[in-house]
Amino acid sequence: MKSDHDIKSMVREKYGEIAIQQGESLNSCCGAENCCGEDIADFSESYSDLSGYVEAADMGLGCGLPTQYATIQPGDTVLDLGCGAGNDVFVARSITGVEGKVIGVDMTPEMIDKARSNAAKLGYENVDFRLGEIEALPVAGSSVDVVISNCVLNLVPDKAKAFAEIFRVLKPGGRFSISDIVLEGELPEEMQSAAALYAGCVAGALQQKIYLGLIEANGFENIRIMKSQAITLPDEIVNRYLDDTQLRNFRESGTGIYSITVSAEKPESQCCEPGCC
């Protein structure tokens, strides 16, 4: 089993390579056809019809459209976790308007550099890209109206800490909209330990029930799955980790890989005992 440090180093290296890829195909590990030489699967959805879309910031990294369900309002402060080159940040900015603010956090320096370069070219002054990790966000507590994230939390080793940090930075009554990969059933050990599949947002995915349980355990309410879509990994990809018999058993096991977009809210009041408010 890889340590948390090893997982983060591997993910940072993979996504750093993606950030500096040149040419037309800047495909991601999480939802792309070329994860630094590793074919995975295409989980991404088209942003082309969304207001604020910036093609140069779209690296195919996502598995959903979290801004569609985030109920972002003009003037909101929005935080994007695992912001990459700024794709969701720029879409969120088109909704908050110039009176709002959008913060993007990513642990990969090359991604932050690319996001800052994109913002500078666009002349945006109300976006802020910060280098940091989701388990220790460089964001003040109770300072954010909306948190969004697109196919990133599955890459975080300590997901309970990640949701605790989301809770910490949200204002009372704040909300999140997160697109992610979850499982129904168990992946074979050979797939769970595959580094390429981890960077591809599959090996790092939790059981959906456990994922939703972490959200509830961290104090969120009104937890809702806004969208769910089954994902099928091609046989030629799975055969890199399983032989034909194992592949057949995997297909017959009922294990499902899903892209979901989930939303939840931080309660308005944080009373810890009767009468405390």
Textual characterization of the structure:
The protein is of the alpha/beta class and about 280 residues long. The chain has a single domain, classed as Vaccinia Virus protein VP39 (Rossmann fold). Helices cover about 30% and strands about 20% of the residues. The protein has nine helices and eight strands. The chain has helices at about 5-20, 85-95, 110-120, 160-170, 190, 195-200, 210-215, 235-240, 245-250; strands at about 75-80, 100-105, 125-130, 145-150, 170-185, 205, 220-230, 255-265. Strands 1, 2, 3, 4, 5, 6, 7 and 8 form an eight-stranded mixed β-sheet that branches. Strand 1, helix 2 (about 85-95) and strand 2 form a beta-alpha-beta unit. Helix 1 runs parallel beside helix 3 (about 110-120). The protein is globular, with a radius of gyration of 18 Å. The relative contact order is 0.15. Mean pLDDT is about 85; it is low at about 20-30, about 30-40 and about 275.
pLDDT averaged over residues:
85
User: Taking Cα atoms only, what radius of gyration do you get, to the nearest Å?
Assistant: 18 Å
Element order: H for helix, E for strand = HEHEHEEHEHHEHEHHE
Tally the helices: 9
Query: Number of DSSP strands?
Result: 8
Q: What CATH architecture would you give?
A: 3-Layer(aba) Sandwich
Residue ranges: pLDDT <50 for 5 or more in a row?
22-29, 31-40, 273-277
Question: Sheet bearing the most strands, described?
Answer: 8 strands, mixed
Estimate the strand proportion.
15-25%
Q: Would you state the CATH class?
A: Alpha Beta
CATH superfamily: Vaccinia Virus protein VP39
Distance between the termini: 46 Å
Return the structural class. Answer: alpha/beta
